[in-house]
Amino acid sequence: MFYRPEDGHGLPHNPFNAIVTPRPIGWISTRGADGSENLAPYSFFNAVAYVPPQVMFASTSAKDDRGDTKDSVANIRETEVFCVNIVEYEARDVMNQTSGPWDKETDEFDLSGAEKAACEIIPCSRVATAPANLECRLTQIVKLPGEANFVVFGEVVGVHIRDNCLRDGIFDVLTFNPLSRMGYRDYTVVREKFELKRPGD
Questions:
Q1: HSE (CB half, 13 Å, CA atoms) of 54?
Q2: Which CATH superfamily is domain 23-189 in?
Q3: Strand, helix or coil for residue 108
Q4: What is the DSSP secondary-structure string of 38-95?
Q5: Which pTM value belongs to this model?
Q6: Left (φ > 0), alpha (ψ -120 to 50) or beta: where does 168 sit?
Q7: Where are the domains of the chain?
Q8: What is the C-alpha to C-alpha distance for residues 73 and 87, in angstroms, rounded to an integer?
Q9: How is residue 173 annotated by DSSP?
Q10: Which InterPro entries match (predicted)?
Q11: pLDDT tens-place string over residues 32-73
């Protein structure tokens, strides 16, 4: 089949998310200028540069109490910092609880039971039990076509790694099994890996 997105796909559900899959999940924690805490997962997320290390996530919807966006982007506009918390399979239900359309006053750490810890460099909280946390300073927010589409870019200025995720100096994802987003309501988990050497290595 072929379809033009502007004309619709004619299927029971939009296949786009299922085509671009699996996608890592950025579990983004932010703090508003008023001190309010927020924790929310984003599956339009990835690392985008090595030196300096940089990441991005995209927010694609809005809430009535936040105008043109959601809590995460609104908080980052105010404070210019955020933290990326890596999601392990064991935390899938906790992560999912933070994905709801909760109002601005809701602290998703408290709501979900995610253990909170202070970041080292930025004024923000992080998920204390996550396999890794990336403390980030905002570099830019880019408005994309569409009513509420924003991409947030940040430079990683601090990295936390859970000690039991390191094996012989390698951050080993099989120690915690990363959770990834697929299409529809589907997720997947990394339980195996293999190595490929690039030509010339």
A1: 13
A2: Electron Transport, Fmn-binding Protein; Chain A (2.30.110.10)
A3: helix
A4: EEEEESSEEEEETTTTEEEEEE----GGGTTS-HHHHHHHHHSEEEEEEPBGGGHHHH
A5: 0.96
A6: left
A7: 23-189
A8: 20
A9: G
A10: Flavin_Rdtase-like_dom (IPR002563), Split_barrel_FMN-bd (IPR012349)
A11: 999 999 999 999 999 999 999 999 999 999 988 888 999 999
